Amino acid sequence: MKVKNKRQSHIKSNIWVSEINDIIRGICGGFLFGIPLLYTMEVWWIGSVVKPQMNIIAIILTFVVVYLLNRTEGFRKYRKDNRPYEAIINTIEAMAIGIICSVFMLILLREITPDNFLKESVGKIIFESVPFTFGVALANQFLGESNGDSDSRNNQQNQHKNHQKSNHKLISKSTAKSEQLYATLSDIGATLIGATVIAFNIAPTDEISMLAAAFSPIWLLLIILVSLLISYSIVFQAGFSNQQKRQQQEGIFQRPSSETIMAYLVSLIASAFMLWFFQKLTFNDPWTMWLDHTLLLGLPASIGGAAGRLAI
Q: Of all helices (H) and strands (E), which one includes residue 251?
């Protein structure tokens, strides 16, 4: 009886762990797909004045598209016996995740405040949640890995570990250091490319300056924490492709926490350079202006940097 109870509790714990992992994967996919549109003022304006009928149409269209995606593969691991009612439940859950993510980000960016919550927030939330919801639904399809790929990768990693152990004595310290340096440079390069791609699309616009005008030091601190948390989750917690490889990489910043901080600093450098390149910041501007503008652009840039590291 005790063995049976232990098995049941173990199964329940595995179900909850799998559920949490699926939700984290969906949230991270939503941020990867939805963050660029979040920094678009036209969407803020349209959402604040749109009629209720358009909000209903947006919800219906989003539901239909996400339902069709969930019939093949959504943010959960694919099941061959996926039934229509299961796809409906997953669609509702994906839309809920998208709405919660958009609400959280709009509050963080000060686009939803107690003053305008009832007047302008509904349309903003619905329109901004559309790309977030698509990202949730597409997370596993585009960024996940199949079981076969995971098994083959694990086998390759085990073989590589055994090979390393057998030849450990033959590897010199200088060779090990050069491999660590190469891995570190690869991480920095991938982060820089991903961050630049995202920052290049946002830096020339006026959104950063508009957002910075409403930010206090406390909100900037929250921006830093959220940037680190999202980028860490995307690379090390969401279960996307190459996550095992990322956790076992042998660079100088070999730990997930130190790699996340390093990548965030690289993203901030890319953000500052993009703002200077597009003449949104000059060397005559005060350092406080450089700080708030760079941190605000650093949020989407760090997400782009995380995506870049997933690609290598």
A: none
